[in-house]
Specification:
With 140 residues, this protein is an alpha+beta fold. It has 3 helices and 5 strands. A 5-stranded mixed sheet has the order 4-1-3-2-5, with helices on one face. Strand 2 and strand 3 form a beta hairpin. The radius of gyration is 16 Å and the shape is globular. The protein starts with a strand and ends with a strand.
Length: 140
């Protein structure tokens, strides 16, 4: 795995602003969005970014700065190379299962999870590009 960047915010708008700034700042990929209802019913949103260490560091810095301008940042952190147990036991809970051509996961279970790194602009049957963003995994 490459570097992992996390930006945890209070509120969805703050997280979207952080993700937008982070993705514009460096060559990174948004791999997951985690939403958690916290104390007092507040919505905590964590965005997960991946790429090389320098790019993720720059993206997290830019995303954190923008999020602080818009709302509240709970935390932001870059893990240069996560330990194998972190990847397999923790992060795998937040990423969609890889599916086969038959739409099943490697253990044979049916999966409706979208591809994690889907292209943002997809061509529809008429040959025109759609402007909708790819579905990101939603963590509750």
């Amino acid at each position: 795995m490459q570097a992992l960047g996390l930006i945890e915010t209070l509120g969805y708008t703050t997280a979207v602003s952080a993700a937008d700034a982070a993705l514009k700042a460096a060559d990174v990929q948004l791999i997951a969005v985690e939403k958690v209802i916290g104390v007092g019913g507040s919505l905590g949103v964590t965005i997960h970014l991946s790429g090389d260490v320098a790019a993720v560091s720059a993206a997290v810095d830019a995303g954190k700065a923008e999020a602080q301008r818009i709302g509240t940042v709970i935390s932001a952190h870059v893990i240069a190379k996560a330990h194998e147990d972190v990847n397999h036991k923790i992060l795998s809970r937040f990423l969609p299962s890889k599916t086969t051509d038959a739409g099943t996961t490697s253990d044979g279970a049916k999966s409706a999870a979208p591809a994690i790194l889907a292209e943002a602009d997809q061509t529809d049957q008429t040959g025109t590009a759609s402007t909708s963003a790819p579905d990101l995994p939603e963590i509750e």
